[in-house]
Amino acid sequence: MSAGAQAAPAAIPSPEPMTLRQRVVGAIPWAGWLVLAVLLAIPALGGGRYLVYLGTLIALQAALATSLNIVMGYAGQFAMSHSAFYGIGAYASAILVASVGLNFWLAVPIAMLCAGALAAAIGYPALRYTGGVHLALITFAFGELARLVAANWDTLTGGPMGMRVMYSPGSFLGFDLSSAKGLYWLAAGMLLVCLLVTELIQRSRFGRGLVAVREDETLASFLGVNVVGYKVAAYVISSMLAAMVGCAYAPIMNFISPDLLSAHETISLIGVLILGGIGTVAGPIIGTFLFFGIPEMLRVARLYRLVVLGVVIVVVALFLPQGIAGVVRQRVERWKRGLR
Amino acid sequence: MDLIQTLLDGLMVGGLYATVAIGVTLVFGIMGILNFAHGQMVMLGAYTAFFVVSAGLGFWPALAIGMVAMGALGLLLERAVFRYTLGDHMQGLTASLGLIMVIENLAAAAFTPDPRNFEPPLPGSFQVLGLTLSSQRMLVLVLVVVLVVACHLFLQKTRIGKAIRAMGQNRTGAALVGIQTSQVTAVVFVLGSAMAGAAGVLYGSLFAITPYMASAPLMKGFILTVLGGLGSVPGAVLAGFLLGVAESLGSRYLSASFRDGYGFILLIVALLYFPRGLLGQRGKMRV
Q: How far apart are the CA of A30 and the nearest CA of chain B, in angstroms?
């Protein structure tokens, strides 16, 4: 009897009251969500046209970076085809809506399914091998190929001159999304969906398996993780989300060109992730703000922004590989454990 | 006749790809540095040749200066950046993506995006057995063969070439038997970059030079490195000629606008059925 009572506290974590530090640390994610909610509300409530437009762009980019984070940050696989799937989503939905005459909300899932099937077909041969180099090569080649197809299939995509898009997404659950603010909410909604998927993955068995794969594929396979299946699943989910964000791009920009698919867009996304903190929920959003938000407000010339961006990517890759959110998380963990 | 003509054209273009692929094989296949900025070196090599030829010095000095200049740039990048990323493919890849943005945007600002050309040393064409051959393409093919043979002999016969191959097999083992791995890495990077410079000069003598020309040769270089077998110089060269012929046949008989797509299809097939590549020794690890 007494022995059992003695053993119980050791086996089950005791319901000790949390220390102040633990409570503060536990509140940080909630504070983060609150800051995000405030930031999302600013353009919608009290913004002029420029602020709404800027907010739309940043929300789109942040959604795209968040979706790339699933395959790069959690699964640790270098997918260079992300902008290609973004573009494929934009083209597919635009063609479905404008030429076939489907409803926008029906075109989105169809475009996502197309992207998912393509991603599975490309991801499987490349992801069978350990190390991730094959995926980087094959996805880079695929992205270039997709851009070539978009530039050359004149009858369907309008060729290198691009394609005008003249439709609006219509209403969704009673909300009218055709005005500028409606489009902003569309982009913000995409961001929230990507964040939700990331959160769900992070909290699931699947997400923990992905992190195990990222850290050590051989060890993960010994622990019973289906390594190839998990990697392919992460790549497919990430690419489908990219296609979903692409569907929003078309009515927001009213114009799609093959440049959307170029590898440079993926490169800047990777820069965003690395700077913000790869494998964290907040990282892609922090990175997007630093890369697109602040320079846009400061009106720095596009050319030098990209050069500075390149230098930042190199410096961060060499000296701060875990990114801003990664460093903050590390510091917070140490503070919580009382290590200063 | 048409078929033979197409095959010969393919061999010439393939030789050009092989030159890029040798550089990538040395840096990526042997040293394990995934340098996506290799294509930017091809582009800078082509611009070097353009400016040297425009200054009236002629094609041969341009080739020499292009190779030396890119070799020097390679040394700088290796010492400043890639020396620190040796243990981690992905870190090196990320750093090289940053370098791409810096080099490409600076090049676009300095050289303007207008396409440029320079006068090839052998203009015109000649006739053999009823085939029409472009003199410049023939010269490029000869130069490529010379470069490939020189590179192969260097790797097989010289002391440092043997050290490079030893490091390709086992870095720690090479260090244990007294090879200065840090210096050899620098040599490999310089050699690979000089090959990129040479490829750039040859590219520039056939095609238009723009700041954005880098991605096609880069993509082909990587495809060929995987296709030929990681770390195998003869494999990369063989794959280069194969890709050139495949592209040439494909654009002649199927569709010219998807020229760059045939290599991608070859890569998918290779990864599915020959993951070791044509002449690769090492198998790929899979879990």
A: 31
Q: Which CATH number fits domain A19-36+51-336: 1.10.3470, 1.20.1300, 1.10.101, 1.10.1660?
A: 1.10.3470
Q: In chain A, what are the domain boundaries?
A: 19-36+51-336
The C-alpha of B80 sits at a distance from chain A's nearest C-alpha, in angstroms, of 10
Q: Does B228 touch chain A (CB under 8 A)?
A: no
pLDDT value at A1 more than 50: no
pLDDT by residue (tens digit) across A280-334? 888 888 888 877 766 666 666 666 777 877 888 888 888 887 888 888 888 888 8
The fold adopted by the segment(s) B2-273 is ABC transporter involved in vitamin B12 uptake, BtuC (1.10.3470)
Q: What percent of chain A has pLDDT over 90?
A: 19
Q: Does B109 touch chain A (CB under 8 A)?
A: yes
Written as one string, the DSSP assignment of A80-137 is --HHHHHHHHHHHHHHIIIII---HHHHHHHHHHHHHHHHHHHHHHHHTSTTSHHHHH
Q: What is the pLDDT of residue A300?
A: 62
Q: Which residues of A touch B105 (CB under 8 A)?
A: 303-304, 306-307, 310
Q: How large a percentage of chain B has pLDDT more than 70?
A: 93
Shortest distance between the Cα of B101 and any Cα of chain A, in A, equals 5
Contact with chain B for residue A270, Cβ under 8 A: yes
Between B11 and A154, residue with greater pLDDT: B11
Please indicate if any CB of chain B lies within 8 Å of the CB of A271. Answer: yes
- How far is the C-alpha of A130 from the C-alpha of A133, rounded, in Å? 8
Mutation choice for B interface testing from A217, A314, A322 by most B CBs within 10 A? A314
Give contacts of A 176-215 with B, CB under 8 A: none
Interchain CB contact of B254 with A (< 8 Å): no
CB within 8 Å: B260 and A314: no
Domain residue limits, chain B: 2-273
Hey, is the C-beta of A143 within 8 angstroms of any chain B C-beta? no
Q: What ipTM did this prediction achieve?
A: 0.79
Which tokens in the block code for residue B84?
A: 């620190």
Residues of B in contact with A304 (CB under 8 A): 105
Per-residue pLDDT band for B282 (boundaries 50, 70, 90) equals low
Could you give the percent of chain B with pLDDT greater than 90? 9
Model-level pTM? 0.79
Q: Which of residues 57-86 of A touch B (CB under 8 A)?
A: 76, 78
Neighbours of A163 (CB within 10 A): 20
A10-46: per-residue pLDDT in tens?
Answer: 455 556 666 777 777 778 888 888 888 888 777 777 7
User: Least CB-CB distance to B287: which of A144, A148, A217?
Assistant: A217
pLDDT, residue A132, reads 65
- Cα-Cα-Cα-Cα torsion B45, B50, B53, B58, nearest 10 degrees, comes to 40
Closest-CA residue of A relative to B283 is A129
Q: Which residues pair with B126 in a beta bridge?
A: B133
Q: Is the dihedral of CA B106, B111, B115, B121 positive or negative?
A: negative
Q: How near does any CA of chain B get to the CA of A141, in Å?
A: 6
